[in-house]
Amino acid sequence: MAGDIQSLSATAAAEAIANGGLTRSELFEHYRIRAAADTLNAFTWVADVEPAPVDGALGGVPLAVKDLFCTEGIPSQAGSKILAGYCPPYTATAVANLEAAGAAVLGKTNQDEFAMGSSNENSAFGPVLNPWDHSRVPGGSSGGSAAAVAAGLAPWALGTDTGGSIRQPAALCGIVGLKPTYGAVSRYGMIAFASSLDSAGPLTRDVADAALCYRHMVGRDGNDATSVVFPEPIETPTAERLDGLTLAVPTALVDGEGIEPGVRQSFEASLDTARSLGATIIDCEIPSARYALSAYYVIAPAEASSNLSRFDGVRYGLRVDESNLDAMYTETRHDGFGAEVKRRILIGTYALSSGYYDAYYGRAQRVRTLVARELAGIFERADFIVTPTSPTVAFGLGDRTSDPLAMYLSDLFTIPMSLAGTPAISIPSGLSEGLPVGLQICGPAFSENRILGAAHALEGAIGFDGSVTWGGAN
Amino acid sequence: MAGGDLEPVIGLEIHVQLRTATKMFCGCALGFGEPPNTRTCPVCLGLPGALPVANAEAIHYGLMIGMALDSELAPVSTFHRKNYFYPDLPKGYQISQFDLPLCSGGKLGEVNIHRVHLEEDAAKLNHAGASGRIEGADSSIVDFNRGGTPLAEIVTEPELRSAEQVGEWLRLLRTTLRTLGVSDVNMEEGSLRCDANISLRPVGTDQLGTKTELKNMNSFRFIERGIRAEVERQRAIIEAGETVTQETLHFDPKSESITSLRSKEEAHDYRYFPEPDLPPVVITEEMLARAAASLPELPAAREQRYIETLSLSPETARVFAWRAELADYFDAVCAADQSLDPHVAANWVTELQGRLGDEEAEDSKVTAAALAQLAAMVVSSQVNQGGAKQVLDQLVAAGGEPASIVADQGLEAVGGADELAPIVAAALEANPELTERLRSGDMKPIGVIVGEVMKQTRGRADGKEVTALVRKQLGLS
Ligand SMILES: [Zn+2]
Predict the structure, then answer these.
(1) Range of the domain at B229
(2) pLDDT tens-digit profile of A23-76?
(3) Are B384 and B413 in contact (CB under 8 A)?
């Protein structure tokens, strides 16, 4: 039975529970045991017992939750030493919505500290290993969530995406990751990295699971002034063809240096598949894309430098006692934050400084406006923009830790959509040198149903088998 | 520069706590002396993941203030983050407004307004130890009940010229805000707080000298004394040929001393940037209409009405209108007896306030109805001025009803030829010498005779009537 349970997608597991073929407790216990035996360091906390059941469409399917979501009474540490052991008094809206729909929180997943990273090596709780190759990174910052789903330690997981933090680890771990339209999912209770970019979304085994999870996440929240009403219900994707649809490829971006030949090959194959499903492929240009990475690495650190000011040792988390206030602040933050977080606080503080604001933050915001305008222009001619999700497959642990700029390039293809606030999905498109490659499909704001549909059609045609990482379907 | 006449240039920054039901960015009720940290939630404690949501009522109050100050109201207003570390600031930044404040420009009385913006109040720090400040404290504890209370910051142009003018203008502002009903405007309790930017310049020039900022003065008296002390300090520096340093200062009312809190070099770089958690506030026609409909009669309009409709003197009209409590009391006296001449009512209200000093008439033992009754008794000669003032003294001391005080103590006016004539005759008879002088045309002693009559009547007679009777009895007509 264990193998049967393991082979069920979240959607299938919810159905099995609904029609009596499986009990909630059987399902929860199956995953609880697997998560507790995690050897990838994907989890920072695993439930001891099954939470009290809640009736709902998700039928008690266990959910792994990225550490930075606040969960009442459960450690929520955002991968940081400064929040080690911190248990919030309230639960994030996105998690609460899923719990209300019947999801059962299985555990909290490891991540880059405060979501700053693309390899999950910036966690105070140690790196996460890629289930495809334990010497490689799972991507980041939602690396624990991606590894947990890919390794079958959880049927699905929640992540957050600020510049690619759902899509890139999904790609590197061979699973599906959806970054929603900005504002579609409440940020209330998400420990903030960059407020104007942070988006919560699902990491799942397949596209149908992503749609099911996402359906229960969206909605306007009175506690998040930037949240919006999603204009339509999230449907279960059923499309098998792409007839009449146009996919735009930003050729200059995709042809740029740094893209691995294997990734390139897999991407070309995906385009062929799309053509065979009836899609038209066209070229497009995102001229401002070459500035997008720089703009992102001004805006995100600027907001982060302010968002992370609350970690001062006064009310919660780590405090290093000192004889005066300034020393307490300095030593607490010195000991509590990791190197990458400190780097970004410094960059952000500098960018917002009096006299530099216009040259950095002001200019970056103008690039952002430009990127959004260019994407909107492309969506007048095309239904979707498609790119590889990441220029490379999973890289080796430690390979890029000494070169932040190389690390930042991991997000080259995902950042423009983050700046524009538009939705995008990453689905597995195949393997390169035995490691998964991701295909990114992006659409205009609130086009999630269409993106999920196209992803579903391509998923079926590509036929990627991710089961090897959890021991196959037996 | 030494020797030349110098004039102060003063601008004010006033923080007003708004009396909304809930805090600026969360659903917590405002604190009113509850046990520490019982009016808090994840948002106003700055817990990880918590987000602000702007209080629509605070924006409504802000619009009302802007309208009352004749400001220009922004069609779109944004919030910014003002970043700095302090234990009373849980997020490490204050949500305030920067380049798009809710209200720009405006005028109150003779003083132009620079801007009015909304922000959140800090929490309250208590320092254990002798210093009473965070430096040198053994420990400090934070009460977050006040943290997140909505504030309107009102900034004037640097147009005030004296401590007295500041005091008078602040009273007008306080009255305006109290009339709007947007704040308790209580300086001692901190719902109205004032910082002053002060510099000196040679009279007749429009150059601006180096300014200092005098912080957190918590009563009208301290503000005036603090400004006076700082003006004198700067005058002494300039007259000694030295230069004033730009710094933030604290005035200690006990020692009358001014100490430096921080210099310009230590000034914060607040790294303002648009608050990404809050979308811009779009001010709709509906919001403007609602704010306009909520405006009560403001001091300037009241002053005008007192002059034009009630014919009060401009001085009295201003004194009443600029002190809402006094004007409300005056209105109540007029309402208690609508046949009463407003002038008479105004005189008695002024008479009463003179006896009360800082105490408000409405808080005294003298009800508006009692004062109206007393005034009417004087008008109808039931009691004379002197007797009425004695009654007023008793009302102030113990309250009560004028008619019964007059009856109990026999303070009824003695008047009319029947009652007064024999007393006047007796007084003349008792002073034959003076009577002779009066008959011969030397009117000087008449006061003595009148005084004698007043003595006999225990002040209950009317002086004019007595004088007339004396002349009549002596055939002087
Ligand atoms: Zn609160």
Answers:
(1) 6-291
(2) 999 999 999 999 999 999 999 999 999 999 999 999 999 999 999 999 999 999
(3) yes
Determine, for residues B276 and A357 on separate chains, whether the beta-carbon distance falls below 8 Å: no
Instruction: Give the CATH number of the domain where residue B467 resides.
Output: 1.10.10
pLDDT value at position A443? 98
Same domain, B247 and B202: yes
- Give per-residue pLDDT as tens, A179-200: 999 999 999 999 999 999 999 9
Q: Which CATH superfamily is domain A2-240 in?
A: Amidase signature (AS) domain (3.90.1300.10)
HEC assignment per residue over chain B: CCCCCEEEEEEEEEEEECCCCECCCCCCECCCCCCCCCCCCCCCCCCCCCCCCCCHHHHHHHHHHHHHCCCEECCEECCEEEECCCCCCCCCEEEECCCCCCEECCEECCEEEEEEEEEECCCEEEEECCCCCCCCCCEEEEECCCCCCEEEEEEECCCECCHHHHHHHHHHHHHHHHHHCCCCCCCCCCCEEEEEEEEEEECCCCCCCCCEEEEEECCHHHHHHHHHHHHHHHHHHHHCCCCCCCEEEEEECCCCEEEEEEEHHHCCCCCCEECCCCCCEECCHHHHHHHHHCCCCCHHHHHHHHHHCCCCCHHHHHHHHCCHHHHHHHHHHHHHCCCCCHHHHHHHHHHHHHHHCCCCHHHCCCCHHHHHHHHHHHHCCCCCHHHHHHHHHHHHHHCCCHHHHHHHHCCCCECHHHHHHHHHHHHHHHCHHHHHHHHCCCCCCHHHHHHHHHHHCCCCECHHHHHHHHHHHCCCC
For chain A, the distance separating the N- and C-terminal CA atoms, rounded to the nearest angstrom, is 10
> Structure pTM?
0.89
> Is A47's Cβ below 8 Å from some Cβ in B?
no
Q: How far is A192 from chain B (nearest CA, A)?
A: 6
pLDDT in tens, B110-165: 999 999 999 999 999 988 876 677 777 778 899 999 999 999 999 999 999 999 99
Asked whether residue B254 falls in the same domain as residue B301, the answer is no
Active site residues of A: 66, 141, 165
Tell me, yes or no, whether B234 and B332 share the same domain. Answer: no
Q: What local confidence, expressed as pLDDT, does residue A2 receive?
A: 63
Q: Do B277 and A191 touch (CB under 8 A)?
A: no
B337 touches B376 (CB < 8 A): yes
Chain-chain contact of B278 with A361 (C-beta, under 8 angstroms):
no
Pick the residue of A188, A197, A309 with the most B CBs within 10 A to test the interface with B by mutation: A309
pLDDT value at A333 more than 70? yes
* Chain B residues near any Cβ of chain A (below 8 Å): 42, 45-54, 81, 83, 85, 87, 90-93, 134-135, 142, 269, 271-273, 276-279
Give the pair of three-digit tokens for residue A1: 């039975």
Chain A residues lying within 8 Å of B90, measured CB to CB: 310, 314-315
B51 with A223: Cβ contact below 8 A: yes
